[in-house]
Amino acid sequence: MKTITLHTKNTTYQLGISPLGFVHHLYYGPKASGDMSALLSMRDRGFSGNPYESRNDRTYSMDALPVEYPCYGCGDYRSPAFNISDEKGIFGADLRYKSHQLEPGKYTIPGLPAVYPDTSEPDDIQTLKLVLEDARLGAEVTLYYGIFPELDVITRTVSVKNNGKGVLHLHKVFSAALDFISGGYDLLHFHGRHAMERLMERSPLSHGTLTIGSFRGTSSHQHNPFVILARPETTEDFGDCYGLALLYSGNFKCEAMMDQYGQTRLMMGLSDDMLDYALCPGETFYAPEAAMAYSSAGLAQLSHIFHKLIRTHVCRGRYRDIRRPVLINNWEATYFNFTGEKIINIARQAASLGVELMVLDDGWFGRRSDDNSSLGDWYVNEEKLGCSMAELAESLHGIGMKFGLWIEPEMVSEDSNLYRAHPDWAFIIPGKPPVMSRNQLVLDFSRKEVVDYIFAQMTEILDHASVDYIKMDMNRSICDVYTAVSGRQNYGTIMYRYVLGVYDFLERLTARYPNILFEGCSGGGGRFDAGMLYYTPQIWCSDNTDAIDRIRIQHGTSFCYPSCCVGAHVSAVPNHQTGRVTPLKTRAVTAMAGTFGYELDLGTLDAAEKQQVQKDIAAYKSFWPLMHDGMYYRLTDPNTPCCAAAWAFVSPDRTEALVSVVVLEMHGNAPAVYIRLKGLAPEKQYVITATESAAAEGLAAENAVSGSVLMHTGIPLPAGLTQYDSIQYYLAEVSDQRRFRKV
Ligand code: GLA
Questions:
Q1: Ligand 1: centre distance to CA 454 (Å)
Q2: Could you identify the atom of ligand 1 that is nearest to the CA of residue 471?
Q3: pLDDT given at position 697
Q4: 155 near 521, Cβ under 8 Å?
Q5: Most buried of 19, 33, 261, 403 (most Cβ within 10 A)?
Q6: Mutate which of 361, 370, 595 to test ligand 1's pocket (most atoms within 8 Å of Cβ)?
Q7: What's the pLDDT tens digit per position in 186-221?
Q8: From atom 2 of ligand 1, which residue's Cα is the shortest distance away?
Q9: Of 575, 363, 389, nearest to 473 (Cα)?
């Protein structure tokens, strides 16, 4: 068997091409050398058929062997990654190896986000193009592998070209498949709902298929396009695990299955539900990109790989590496009830406490005074504001604040001039009453003229007012998919083109306004995925701003996404979503694990609280380099019954750390709680200071404690903390002269 081997710094990936031209997956795991084809076990197995050419050798079966890109029709009866039919409706592919080449550099994908090389950190990046062919259909299927050795990541995508004479119908073109010949695995996936997104669930795989995905038009609140396959014994600090993230913001599917022989298959890609993509002769289809990584040292290390990947090879733009301004958003402060003057007053108060950016949320356009009208009418409601947008921007800049604006370009209200003029621009099936959500409809962004029109409306505003930040929202799931411009309708195709339309809109907007900071949003975190992060380097994490719920949401989010992508704000108490009352400090500590901002009228706080806000903003600014460059460690799991939630940022050289702890539950006469740290250097001595000295009762600042003790036994939490209290510890390596003070 001819093999192709890809190496990253710590991993090896190997494919094998059989004499019949079938491509098998041989190995993905810790770095290794040699030919792994001996790992394949060839056996005669009943009801697992054989390729025609090897019918006398009944031990060769695609149904039992690991396949690199499984297709329906080759005798593999497990769920395929690829499914195609011809003009007559005949299903059945026979993909065989045609050629391959290894090229320097990274491939790109037309119209879709893709991991890019970071020029500031040279890496010897290569692309493997492996071409498979179905001679009968005239289909050429190219598997792309982007190899990032230093990053320890391999990216994948697939293109399908029709070299034949008839139209081909694509029913499934997943981006990546991974077959494992040995071992049972758990699937870690991130489920949720609006206002409670990305909660980690660990499901042991058993015979059959565990499928997660989205059918809502966006990647969704309900499931995230990132999963982890881990051995049952794998923990944060120990064991094998694989991560797979899809850079796509629409309908997706992930299938994790255990086959009849106990083997595991993990696949992810564009959803195949109701997909019938007509590929005409000469045309090429591109699947979204998937990124995969392996860790031999548990989940924390896997997260670190994905954090770096997303931070420096997915996020783009001016704000990629710089601290984002501390913002204040008026949504929970005013909802729709504001004037320009009220916004300026909120901003003035916030500016005096150290806030740097005022974001004007929903309600500034058309005749919008609640959520029943005006989406699509993107002209400024000067009557409501009492000034033009340019004047508002100028006033805010005058008080030293940057200015941000909320938009929701993909939507239209029935009660809008746009809908009255172009009812066929909305997704509605003729003759069927559309499903409504928040009383709004979705614009058909699969049509270029619709995207162009909305784009022109946006540029009209942004060309005339000095805007520093855009929050781009998307506030409903998509239904009633019908495009008025085409006779042939296909749900899956229209939804794929819809996402390409959204990406085209964002690509043009971000290119035209390179100085604007873009934040993604979809009712909070309904489109929190690596595809969107290619355009918007941060995303509003959840509409739930309750600190305690947020800790759980941010915990799940942290498995794939770095803190600099996580929009997080301090809001008022009782919290608007849960009614819970938490200390201001705790809300700030929680928001500091994200992009940090406020979402309340700071003028309503008393003098002590205002002082606290000033201190928290100053702390955020001073800890930002550590939080940005540092490695993030989950120290407890807040979704299990535990006393405290805790997380830490540790500097790459392990000389500094910031540990945040929030008390979740308190009991009478409670035992002492120790927070065990991670990621420190065992041999180093650390001086620990609680960032607010009043709480530093547990450990005196002059004590130095060794990394091994802190990781083995932990920091004892001080007595006297009550439910929802928080404490932050700053750890710095003691200088050589102070080593004698070690504990
Ligand atoms: C969504 C967002 C909120 C806010 C509202 C405005 O729900 O997630 O933050 O912008 O829309 O309508």
A1: 19
A2: 10
A3: 44
A4: no
A5: 403
A6: 361
A7: 999 999 999 999 999 999 999 999 999 999 999 999
A8: 523
A9: 363
HSE on the CB side for 557, CA within 13 Å? Answer: 32
Q: Ligand 1 in contact with 528 (CB < 6 A)?
A: no
State which of 330, 334, 406, 550 you would mutate to test the pocket of ligand 1, scoring each by most atoms of that ligand within 8 A of its C-beta: 406
Contacts 24+ apart (CB under 8 A), 125-131: 125/149, 126/102, 127/102, 127/103, 128/4, 128/6, 128/100, 128/101, 128/102, 129/100, 129/101, 129/103, 130/4, 130/15, 130/23, 130/68, 130/97, 130/100, 131/97, 131/98, 131/99, 131/100
Residue 739: per-residue pLDDT: 40
Would you say 289 and 114 are in contact if contact means Cβ atoms under 8 Å apart? yes
Task: Reply yes or no on whether 529 is catalytic.
Answer: yes
Residues in contact with 667: Cβ distance below 8 Å, sequence separation at least 6, in sequence order: none
State the pLDDT at residue 535. 98
- From the CB of 473, is ligand 1 less than 6 Å away? yes
Residues 398 and 392: their CA atoms lie apart, in Å, by: 10
| Protein residue whose Cα sits closest to atom 1 of ligand 1 | 523
Q: Do residues 54 and 20 lie in contact, with contact meaning Cβ atoms separated by under 8 Å?
A: yes
Catalytic, out of 273, 452, 609, 629: 609
* Nearest-atom index, ligand 1, CA of 540: 8
639 contacts 549 by C-beta, under 8 angstroms: no
Sign of the Cα pseudo-torsion (171, 176, 180, 185, in order): negative
Ligand 1 and 364: CB distance under 6 A? no
Q: What is the CA radius of gyration of the chain?
A: 27
Distance linking the first and last C-alpha atoms of the chain: 59
Averages of pLDDT over runs of 10 residues in the chain (743 residues) are 98 98 98 97 96 94 98 98 98 98 98 96 95 98 98 98 98 98 94 98 98 98 98 98 99 98 98 98 99 98 98 97 98 98 98 98 98 98 98 98 98 98 98 98 98 98 98 98 93 98 98 98 98 98 98 98 98 98 98 98 98 97 96 96 94 97 93 96 94 50 86 94 95 65 33
Ligand 1 pocket mutation, candidates 527, 543, 545, 569, criterion most atoms within 8 A of CB: 543
Instruction: Say how many C-beta atoms besides its own lie within 10 A of residue 611's C-beta.
Output: 12
Tokens of 89: 């409706």
Could you give the CA distance from residue 26 to residue 68 in angstroms, rounded to a whole number? Answer: 8
User: Is the CB of 406 within 6 Å of ligand 1?
Assistant: yes
Q: What's the CA-to-centroid distance between 474 and ligand 1, angstroms?
A: 8
Look over the chain and give the mean of its residue pLDDT values, rounded to a whole number. Answer: 96
| 143 in Cβ contact with 158 (< 8 Å) | yes
Residue 540 in contact with ligand 1 by CB distance below 6 A: yes
Catalytic residue among 86, 133, 410, 529: 529
CA-closest candidate to residue 378, choices 370, 394, 389: 389
Q: Tell me, what's the pLDDT at 702?
A: 60
Rounded to the nearest angstrom, the distance between the alpha carbon of 162 and the centre of ligand 1 is 43
Per the listing, tokens 């620990």 go with 688
Give kind and range of the element (H or E) at residue 158.
Answer: strand 153-162
Query: Residue 4 is encoded by which pair of tokens?
Result: 């192709």
| CA–CA dist 739, 743 (Å, integer) | 9
Any catalytic annotation for residue 133? no
